[in-house]
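Work Package 3 (structural annotation) set out to generate three-dimensional models for the target panel prioritized at the project kickoff. During this period the team completed the workflow that converts sequence records into discrete structure tokens, so that structures can be stored uniformly alongside our sequence database. As a representative example, we reproduce one entry of 193 residues exactly as it appears in the project archive.
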Amino acid sequence: MKAAEKLTPRSVHLYQKLSLSRPTVCERIKEMGEDIEDNLKKRAEKFVNFSVCLDETTDIKNTGQLAIFFRGVTSDFQIDENLLSLESMHETTRGEDLLQKLLQALGKFNLPLDTLCGVATDGAPAIVGKHKGMVSLLKKEMDARGIRHDTLVFFHCIVHQQSICAKSVKFNHVVSVVTDCINFFKKRKQPHI
């Protein structure tokens, strides 16, 4: 209540009436998440095309994490981009596992494969491998569904391209500092709340 007293002293009595018990707060967070998801589904229904960006990494507990971002465009050129899903990969992170998570996320938001126009990746072998990478398996899945993929654009994520470019232009002294900072923060243990 101290924050309410400082921020809105005239409305403190309203805050005192609110239940802030753990179950109530959890339920409100769940409802907000569902509302965000419903709004995203409604916006996604209007897309004529969309692309996805996939980044697979491992967290500090050695669990694979797949971040799936999307960018969609409507018929009147309204562009929407957002985090579509963050998927934990508890067992393996093979191409087929990544594809399954991608297809589940697309299905959850009713994003059909026939409107997918581009895939950006981080270049991990599980994603871009020639035979068992997620990209190859996605093409096979599209073939199996009778969806053309010859115009589908696959490219390497721009952040990773910058890193490669920095190495070839001899900017390692800059990139290495940034990389060291990122690794420092990633390795730090999070405080228990």
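The first strand starts at residue 47 and ends at 58.
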